[in-house]
Automatic annotation (TrEMBL):
InterPro entries: CAAX_protease, Rce1/LyrA-like_dom. The chain crosses the membrane at residues 5-26, 46-65, 77-104, 124-147, 159-176, 202-223. The keyword Transmembrane applies. It comes from Parageobacillus toebii. It comes from the Bacteria. This is CAAX prenyl protease 2/Lysostaphin resistance protein A-like domain-containing protein. Signal peptide: none annotated. Keywords: Membrane, Transmembrane, Transmembrane helix. GO terms for molecular function: endopeptidase activity.
């Protein structure tokens, strides 16, 4: 692995662990002091620290990858027009793969649908809306750089697609710290790895990942009340039908 890639990974790991010191520091500086309780204050501080740490890490990683950014795409890359078709189609492919994996977890493995990690992020976004920039844009970009471009890309030079995608996808799943949803995250990892291997352009899985995350965040934040209302109406209809 290239030395600059190690620098990128180290930066990412430090960013992930930085909240141990960063969140208490923001508490000390008074961030969230007007919150209604300590829990909300912690959520606000955590949200702002995520914005700060991810933004700084993003800039540092771009600096380390400046040579990669300047390099032209190889002759093995698909044409730009085809890459954009894969990027747009990749959004639907990712949503379809996620749906299949979620149903397998629920119906075959008995794992309750829903992600505690996602729920917590949504709660943090509600008190720190700026965090949406991290969850929808910066976070997915960094994950694709780390897990697809660097880890998968490096392994793919020596091993076949399945082994390379499996290792990078499992690491991708473990980082999300929800081992009960290992299949779900690994499936997403395989999907994004496929898009990268197929096109040799990292912006393709980045676009699919960013769009999917943005869609999920919007659904669970801005349209949360409407969805809950629709679910209640559906339950009422089912009760009425069941009464006949």
């Amino acid at each position: 692995m290239k030395r600059r890639y190690w620098y990128v990974i180290i930066t990412y790991v430090i960013m992930q662990l930085s909240g141990i010191a960063g969140v208490p520091l923001l508490h000390f500086l008074g961030v969230g002091k007007h919150a209604k309780n300590d829990f909300v204050a912690t959520e606000i501080a955590s949200g702002y620290w995520a914005v700060i740490s991810f933004s700084i890490a993003f800039l540092i990683i771009l600096f380390f990858l400046r040579e990669d950014i300047k390099q032209r795409h190889t002759r093995y890359s698909v044409p730009l027009s085809a890459a954009w078709m894969w990027a747009i189609g990749g959004v639907f492919l990712a949503l379809f793969a996620q749906s299949i994996a979620a149903n397998i977890e629920w119906r075959l493995l008995g794992i309750e649908p829903g992600s505690e990690n996602t729920k917590r992020i949504v709660e943090m976004i509600r008190v720190t809306p700026l965090l949406m920039v991290v969850t929808s844009i910066i976070g997915p970009i960094l994950e694709e750089i780390i897990f697809r471009k660097i880890i998968f890309g490096t392994l793919y030079q020596k091993y076949n697609f399945f082994i390379s995608a499996l290792v990078s996808s499992l690491l991708f799943a473990v980082v999300h710290m929800e081992l009960e949803h290992l299949l779900l995250y690994a499936t997403m990892g395989f999907t994004f790895a496929f898009l990268y291997a197929k096109t040799k352009r990292i912006f393709v899985p980045i676009f699919a990942h960013v769009t999917m995350n943005t869609f999920v965040v919007l659904i669970q934040t801005i349209f949360a009340d409407e969805i809950e209302k629709m679910m209640r109406q559906t339950e009422q209809i089912q009760l009425i039908i069941g009464g006949f």
